[in-house]
Amino acid sequence: AVYSFVPGGGELVVRAARDLKEGEQIFYAYVDPFQQRSARQNLIRQGYFFQCACDWCAGSRGPERHLNAVICSPWPEPDELKCEAAILPDVSPEGSQPMESEVVTCASCQRRHAVTEINALNQSAEEMLESAMQTLHEDATQGFIKLSRFLETKEVRKLHPCHHLL
C-alpha cells in the first residue's frame, strides 16, 4: 500500500496494491520487507519498540516464504535423489540464536537440514554479494567480474530462485 496525507487537512489516503476485503487489516512495512525475518524483527524492536505480528514477521506464512529459502538438495550424493524443494530458514524464536540441534525437515523428501547451516549459507551469500557490490562501486569492470563470479558460486546456486539476493 502507498499512503499520503494532506498537511493540516486531517486526511490520510491509502492506496493498496491489491483489492482489500472490508474490515481487512492493513500492515505497514517499517523496514525493508525483503530482509530476513530475524533482521526485520530486530530492526523493528530496536527502532520502533514493538514486536511485529504480521504474517510476514510471525512465521513462514505469507509472501515472504521463499525470500530466504534454499534448495533442499540440488547436487545430491550419488546414492541420494535430487530435491529442489524450498527449505525455509530462520525458525528460531525471535531474538534467540539457533541451537546446533535445530533442524528443518524438507516437506518433499524428508531430508533434515541444520538451521545453522542454512543461516550460514544465507550469510555467506550476502557477504559475497556485498563485497561484489563494493568492488562494483570502486571499479565497474572488476565489479562486474566479481558479480558474475558471485552468481556462479555453488553457494548462490543453492539459493531458491526467488531468494532476495538473486
List keywords for this structure.
single chain; 166 residues; alpha+beta; two-stranded antiparallel ribbon; 6 strands; 15% strand
* Biggest sheet strand line-up: 1-2
Round the Cα radius of gyration to an integer and report it.
Answer: 19 Å
The major beta sheet can be summarized as: 2 strands, antiparallel
User: What order do the SSEs take from the amino end to the carboxyl end, as H and E?
Assistant: EEHHEEEEHHH
Secondary structure blueprint with pairings:
Elements: E1 2-6, E2 11-15, H1 37-48, H2 55-58, E3 70-73, E4 83-87, E5 103-105, E6 112-114, H3 115-138, H4 140-152, H5 154-157
Antiparallel strand pairs: 1-2, 3-4, 5-6
Helix pairs in contact: 3-4
Architecture overview:
Residues 91-96 have low confidence and may be disordered. This protein has helices at residues 37-48, 55-58, 115-138, 140-152, 154-157; strands at 2-6, 11-15, 70-73, 83-87, 103-105, 112-114. The protein has one domain. The chain is α+β, with helices and mostly antiparallel strands and 166 residues long. Helix 3 (115-138) runs antiparallel to helix 4 (140-152). The protein is globular. Strands 1-2 form a two-stranded antiparallel ribbon.
Write a concise synopsis of the structure shown.
This protein is of the alpha+beta class.
